[in-house]
Amino acid sequence: MNEAPPSTFLPGLAPAPPPSLLLASLSRLDLLAAPKSTLVDLRPSVYAYATSLAQESGGATNAADAFETSFARVWLEKVLALGSRALARGADDTDEWEEAVDRAARLLADMAGPSAQGSMVKTYLLPHAAHWPTSALAYPTPPTTRPGSTVPFAPRASPAVSWSDVAEQALALTIRDGTLLEASTGHRTWGSASILSHLLAANPSRFFPPRPGSPSRDPLRVLELGSGTGLVGLTAAAVLSREGPARAEVVLSDGGDEPEAVLSNLRDNVAANSARLSPDVHVRVERLDWRDYLLSAGESVASPTSSNAPPHAERFDLLLGTDLVYERDQAVLLHAAAAGLLRFPSASLNPAPTFWLALPIRPTHAQENAQVAALFPPAASAPPAAAPELQRTDPATRRTYRLVALEREELVGPSGFAATGAVRGRASAMGELRYCVVRIGWQEVAA
After folding, report:
1. Distance (Å, whole) CA 196 – CA 320
2. What Pfam families does the annotation carry (predicted)?
3. Which of 21, 255, 283, 359 has its CA 20 to 30 A from that of 144?
4. Res 42: pLDDT
5. Residue 1 belongs to some domain of the structure
6. What SS3 class is residue 232?
């Protein structure tokens, strides 16, 4: 890192230096510790990115980073104490001490982590799949230190293809993150969103296979559940604008705690990226309450003409969702919404309607993850009849289905809490998590 660490440029505080010197040092520390605009490069595989970070900094560097972070925090706390005493004495003719106190307090809040930070605008760079020479791509062999079940979630270039060549083309999306204190979890872009967004951009044919038929056919309908800041839905819209079907409709939805604040930020993010989208790809934001899709006792499917029909009686070809289950019984609501919104199979639909779900594998959420696995079980060669609340009947064909996991992949990637509390080096603040990406679809069950 070219920037000098804080211990080499922060001035001593005994005796107290003039506030003008402190303000200059605070400006330098602000640029180093808490940038308000961040570039997030999701073009290479996150697996390779995390590996390169580990190689670039060993234990000594990690220890140095921890020291520098601690040094900066202690220095800021002392500045607050000095400034408070100066203000109490009335020794602030130029208002410089008041400004120093305010900036030191904001820096300490920024270094405390995302829940205490102010809003941040991030530019996400996503791979341009059309420029990836697929014949020269290969998966790296996981090192012996990683479990055998984990694989990188994106290919890396062989020696014949450099990352600099690949990186010349990219999708760029601008996303504003708020804070956990500003509204709810919907104001943060979580790690699973980065994972699925990378996958969508790096391998679009996996998620948006070519649709046979004339350009006049119905548009591809895509819904992101629990969009939050909208990174995944906007990635889908950008990829479809670049190389998708002639027409597509992408709906970004949310309805959690304080939904109006989340939806307002979501609309702003859509507007900020509208120039990157094709006129044939229509994007809109809607409030969606999953509770509207819970079935009443003895009800197999809500009829579009019934008085208690949910807001979206029309269904979608593709559902996308990330980091959607973090409390007990949220999985039940998620299942109800997915079952009420995913289009039923049909001979005229190709590809089959699909729900892609990405979740972190956190030990603290083992029960929630187990509940997801139970509600979306692996597909069976001879599926038994499911519990009534898990079944849905297509009114058009009278066939009964349940949602099952058709494919499950475990991946390793950044936790999404990178570098907010570090003031030197990146690896010490770059946490890793394991994620699962599940492809969910309908399977017919016995009546």
Report:
1. 9
2. Methyltransf_16
3. 359
4. 80
5. no
6. helix
Please report, as a single letter, which amino acid is at residue 380: A
Per-run averaged pLDDT (10 residues), the chain, 447 residues:
76 91 89 65 57 39 70 91 90 87 83 59 80 34 35 36 46 79 64 92 88 68 94 96 83 82 91 92 95 69 45 84 88 95 86 94 88 92 74 92 94 62 39 87 86
Q: Within a 10 A sphere around the Cβ of 444, how many other Cβ atoms?
A: 14
Do 274 and 147 reside in the same domain of the chain?
A: yes
Sign of the dihedral through C-alpha 366, 367, 373, 376: negative
Whole-number pLDDT of residue 166: 39
User: Which residue do the tokens 């950044």 mark?
Assistant: 414
Q: How far apart are CA 221 and CA 368, in angstroms?
A: 29
Smallest CA-to-CA distance from 46 within 443, 415, 419 is with 415
Decide if 177 contacts 117 (C-beta within 8 A).
no
Instruction: Give the Å distances, CA to CA, from 352 to 186, 208, 313.
Output: 29, 11, 19
Residues 247 and 206 in one domain: yes
Same-domain pairing of 207 and 267: yes
Q: Tell me, yes or no, whether 130 and 213 share the same domain.
A: yes
Q: What is d(CA 142, CA 43) in angstroms, rounded to the nearest whole number?
A: 19
Token couple for 314: 């029309």
| Closest of 295, 290, 361 to residue 319, by C-alpha | 290
242 and 170 in a common domain: yes
Cα(417)–Cα(184) distance, integer angstroms: 16
Question: What local confidence, expressed as pLDDT, does residue 421 receive?
Answer: 41
What the block records as the tokens of 154 is 């994106």
Q: How far apart are the first and last CA of the chain?
A: 64
- Read off the DSSP letter of residue 363: G
What pLDDT does residue 148 have? 32
Same domain, 26 and 86: yes
Question: Roughly what angle, to the nearest 10 degrees, separates helices 59-89 and 96-111?
Answer: 150
Which class for 187: exposed (0-12), middle (13-18), buried (19 or more C-beta within 10 A)? buried
Residue 169 to residue 163: CA distance in whole angstroms: 11
Sheet with 120-127: strands ordered across: 37-41, 120-127, 170-177
- Same-domain pairing of 98 and 230: no
The answer to whether 259 and 241 have CB atoms below 8 angstroms apart is: no
Find the length of the chain: 447
Point out the domain boundary residue: 50, 81, 111: 111
Give the per-residue pLDDT at 61: 52
Q: Where are the alpha helices (DSSP H) in 189-311?
A: 191-202, 204-207, 231-243, 259-272
By residue range, what is the domain housing residue 86? 6-111
